[in-house]
Amino acid sequence: MAIEDFISRHQEILENSPLDLASNWKREHPATKLIGCYPVYSPVELIHAAGMLPVGVIGAGNRLEIAHADSRFQSFVCSIVKSTLELGLTERLKFLDGIVFHSICDPARNLGSVFKRNFPDMMVEYIHFPQNLSSPHAVDYLTAEYQRLKASYEKMAGTEITDEALRGSISLYNEQRRLLRELYALRKDTPQNLSTVECYVLTRIGTLLPPEEHISILKEAIPGLRQRNEKPKDRIRVVLEGSFCEQPPIELLEALEAAGCYILDDDFLLGWRWFLEDIPTHGDPWRNLANAYINQSVYSGVKHDTREPKSKHLIDKVKETGASAVLILAAKFCEPALFDYALYKRALEKAGIPHLCLEFEEKMWIFDKARTEVETFVESMLFD
Amino acid sequence: MVGSTEAAKNTYQGQMHLLQKEIMGRYFERLTRAAEKGEGKAVYMLISGNPVELIQAFDLIPVYPEIDALQLAVKKSALPFIQKAEELGYSMDNCAYVKADVGLFLGDRKTPFATIPLPSLILCNYVGCNVYLQWFEHLAEYCDGELYNLDIPFLRDPSGQPSPEDITYVVRQLEEVIEICERISGKKLDYARLKAIVGRSGETGEMWSRIKGLTKNIPSPFDAYFDSVTMMAPLYCLRGTEEGLRFFETALKEMEEKVQMGTGPLAEERFRFIIEGPPPWPYLRTFRDLFSKWGAVAVASTYSTVGGLWEFGFRHDANRPLESIAQHMLQWNVTNRNFLQRYQQIRRYVQEWHADALVIHSVKSCRLFSAGQGDMREYFTKELNVPTLLIESDIEDPRYFSEAQIKNRIDAFFESLEHKKLVHAAAEAGGAA
Ligand code: SF4
Ligand code: SF4
């Protein structure tokens, strides 16, 4: 199948009901246990090393009607929290054996508790990631946290997670992340050859399939994509920031590009691309995984690293990619993304980098307003 | 400090309130002297599970931006600060405590109650609230100040307890904080002094816990929401000091006398309720009156356990000062407990404090409290059959308080409770006949 066909077929699945890929897979592999991973980052290697499959539960897109969850979570809570609960309440998560939440924000954390109460048959885990990244004790803490999870995942899987198996999983996911970095580099260097939607689809399916399958898809796709030779259009080049958790609808991504930007880098599905380099596979794999979180991971609105301001990272990214502007695309009611914006705005203005701030909701399905705003912004940049 | 604003027709103003005004006045004067005359050094901290003992041990001044924000709201002067922050890029949907404080911080930091000193250390005790991390990250960036994230692992184990590794991690970090405080204050930690302070915190916890137990009496001697907030400021700002301890001795004595006399905050106690969620500070008086008019008294509140949860037995232990500070931060406050543990806390209140109903005040700013309260309502009404009212407004932003709407909901709720009581009484009488 041509890569274009492959992508458009998968795009359709993702637009309709993103989790179908994983639930279909489960139907063909009923013996394998599936563990849902709520955003942002989850140490998927631990799940995989127990012989289970980690699956990204990253919202329900814009086709699911919220009929029950909005009586549990108020109007001022972000969409993804409600859509995830709605998926559960409408029995669309039955194919999962467990789900794991993380210390990213207060609503997601409370959602974990609500899951526990409403779905007693599901294993519900919660990981507290350290927020004191400058303390030398954080690595010990996180290693112990992973050991705690080990017991829980082993019980679920009915097998032991050996160091050997964990090393294997780390090296597998290293490869997946390396290929994703390649894909992103390709788009950064030649955005005319790889659209953001294509890049997104190729990344997102990796959260729903076994890593081995995703790796072979990427291995086949990337060389072909490199062969493309499109002429660059007259567009501004931007870095997109703020969509690290709830995901914008794919139609919105299309609209943004069509409005006249090349997105050179973004933070979509960030947890699945969490590391800047490979995690070492020699030595204690538990500690390596913990250490990588603290010392080798990307910056993010849910990781508050006092060692260096996030806005510095953003500005560095703009410089490294050669972008001329920043597009902040924050989920409505997303406390971490909206707070970050105040500091980003200040830093970008100081650095003289133009930016546009937009809010989105995964459930939105009218994009004209966003498109017009971006067009106006692009025009102001192109004809200034 | 809130109860001390204006004497109200249906609020009692005892010695406790006067003394609170006096000691908190002195505390705020201390802040002003630090800000204006450079006397002493300020450490910014957050209320939830605060480790104030450590700061007292170095004679540093604990400053809580949350208390500043709430004072602004009570004095009805928060809105311009909130709007200033929004002009700078903060969203309508961000926690308004942060916005009010940022607006204040970036100005001359003068308020009707004190001038707020700049921090020598920004100590982010991250106990439950994720917004804390960003709040203090922002302050540190605005003043180029020293920031330390004191990371408290959330209670996530099915046992409801912190793991030994969690405790070790927190103690190690407390040791790092001690080093920083030694550098800032220029003096070594006096371990014996720390032990004495932690000992006084233990005694304070004992008093506070006994005070809270008194609301099990019928009638309840005070309102465990509206009057408890009066006692919360000394609990956070002065815990571990002699002055703070004396305050709680006075308060306990006064409340015990009220129990003896069988008096409460209202002429007649007709309903006893538990309240969940922070108060609407800008409209506290109005809000209180909406309940008082029904003879409804709060006999327990989760909000009064934000800074610490003592009524279920926890006491600081002078013999293990750092471990017990760690335990307080990890386990003995409502914010670091998971949402289901909060359900159980409320359930205990309903049963042991003999309540007729649960009121959930759902505030937009504070998603730590509010996110998912619809599920909580479901649990209490459907599983436990506890009449539950959920109302929405805000903790800080006056734009989210709709008095007419809230009044209607409260009236309808108590009307129906009243009706149920009558029916119940009639049935009992019929049964007896
Ligand atoms: S979108 Fe933002 S507020 Fe919502 S769960 Fe994700 S991080 Fe939390
Ligand atoms: S979210 Fe709640 S606990 Fe956190 S800073 Fe705001 S009001 Fe305080």
Describe this structure in words.
The complex is a heterodimer of chains A (384) and B (433). Chain A has 384 residues and is an alpha/beta fold. Chain A has helices spanning 3-16, 20-28, 44-49, 79-89, 106-118, 137-157, 163-189, 196-204, 211-227, 250-258, 285-295, 310-321, 335-351, 368-382; strands at residues 34-37, 53-56, 98-102, 123-127, 236-241, 261-265, 325-331, 355-360. In chain A, the strands form 2 sheets. In chain A, strands 2-1-3-4 form a 4-stranded parallel beta sheet, with helices on both faces. In chain A, strands 6-5-7-8 form a 4-stranded parallel beta sheet, sandwiched between helices. The model of chain A has no long low-confidence stretch (mean pLDDT 97). Chain B is α/β, with parallel strands linked by helices and 433 residues long. Chain B has helices spanning 15-37, 52-57, 65-74, 79-87, 96-105, 130-143, 164-185, 191-213, 228-237, 242-261, 284-292, 321-331, 339-352, 367-370, 373-383, 403-432; strands spanning 42-44, 61-63, 119-126, 147-151, 271-276, 296-301, 357-363, 388-393. In chain B, the strands form 2 sheets. In chain B, strands 2-1-3-4 form a 4-stranded parallel beta sheet, with helices on both faces. Chain B starts with 14 loop residues before the first helix and ends with a helix. The interface between A and B is large, with 54 and 56 residues. The complex binds iron/sulfur cluster (2 copies). The site of one iron/sulfur cluster (SF4) has 12 residues of chain B, from helix 5 and helix 6.
- Report the total helices of chain B: 16
Low-confidence stretches of chain B: 1-10
Encode the helix/strand succession of chain B as letters.
HEHEHHHEHEHHHHEHEHHEHHEH
| Rg over alpha carbons of chain A | 20 Å
What is the total tally of β strands of chain A?
8
Strand order of the largest sheet of chain A: 2-1-3-4
**Distinct bound molecules:** iron/sulfur cluster
Rg of chain B (C-alpha, Å): 21 Å
The total of beta strands of chain B comes to: 8
Class from helix and strand fractions of chain B: alpha/beta
Assembly status? heterodimer
| Structural class determined from secondary elements of chain A | alpha/beta
